[in-house]
Design brief:
With 288 residues, the protein is of the alpha/beta class. The protein has one domain. The protein has nine helices and seven strands, in the order H-H-E-E-H-E-H-H-E-H-H-E-H-E-E-H. Strands 1-7-6-2-5-3-4 form a seven-stranded mixed sheet, sandwiched between helices.
Length: 288
């Protein structure tokens, strides 16, 4: 699809998502909540619907060729029930939707202004998201993402406490340790709030890596700055880290995770550079 068509289509997609999220939150989900069933049946029904909303939006972006994406199969060691922390790098604006569309029941820590937004606050509560700290700027450096990481090296204990209680209640969380979208060619430092919450709650950590080639929807990049080629997104998983019954130093584990992500991020940069080089026009030889 030509670039000049992808620009308005991208704007239409995001306006449609927020509008549909508003309608689903204020009308659709309350109706579903009144359907017969036990509280557990109702909860699982709503989780499946919300997961389908995220999948539907990503599927629409793929269908109209704004992105290239195939939802991955969950690995054999992926937790099938109970609380766990799914962590990932954060290269683009749609990472939260990619991850929450993987399986029902995932929620996240969101910025207070999104949690109280008139448009999405009902959806946020039905999705069981956790309100983040008021010190949003300190954690996210002004990012416009909905998601917000908890705890800047332990300086947000109230948010980490909420995460621990959420996990111990059997819920799963998506957290981006970078707290804000990555730079184009460098990851941000990993905050340890996600690891600390998982260790305290005794739940598994599921490390995932999101790659996108070429980069798009980056931090400080307007939505209308689409790349010349549609971005190819891929979600892949590292081995699950069990924390229950183990003596784990969150600081050390966080450093090890960061090193692992740095290695994979460097591979992604090489993939991007190779693709860009292959797509570049061949220089014409001078005429003799």
């Amino acid at each position: 699809m030509p670039k000049f068509l992808r620009i308005p289509l991208t704007g239409f997609a995001f306006v449609g998502f927020f509008s549909f999220g508003c309608i689903a939150g204020w009308l659709g989900l309350p109706i579903l909540a009144m359907w017969p069933g036990s509280p557990e049946v109702k909860r699982r029904r709503i989780e499946r619907i919300i997961c389908a909303i995220y999948r539907g939006f990503i599927g629409f972006l793929h269908l109209v060729r704004l992105i290239e994406y195939t939802r991955p199969e969950l690995p054999p060691d992926f937790p099938r029930s109970g609380g766990y922390v799914l962590i990932a790098n954060h290269p683009s604006l749609i990472d939260t939707l990619l991850l929450m569309g993987l399986t029902p029941g995932l929620s996240s820590v969101v910025k207070p202004h999104w949690y109280s937004s008139w448009m999405l606050r009902v959806l946020m509560r039905y999705a069981n998201h956790i309100p983040g700290a008021d010190r949003t700027a300190a954690l996210t450096d002004g990012s416009s993402d909905m998601s917000q990481d908890a705890g800047s090296d332990g300086d947000m204990p109230a948010v980490v406490d909420r995460m621990v209680a959420h996990l111990q209640a059997g819920h799963a969380l998506v957290i981006f340790p970078e707290a804000s979208r990555s730079w184009e060619r460098k990851m941000r430092r990993f905050r340890r709030g996600a690891v600390e919450a998982a260790v305290r709650a005794g739940v598994p950590i599921v490390p995932a890596f999101i790659s996108v080639n070429p980069p798009m929807l980056m931090k400080h990049q307007p939505w209308h700055e689409v790349p010349d080629r549609r971005g190819a997104f891929r979600v892949e998983f590292f081995p699950v880290i069990e924390t229950a019954g183990r003596e784990i130093d969150p600081r050390q584990l966080n450093r090890e995770l960061r090193a692992m992500y740095d290695g994979r991020f460097a591979e992604m940069l090489r993939e991007r550079d190779a693709t860009a080089l292959a797509a570049a026009p061949v220089a014409q030889l001078p005429q003799t």
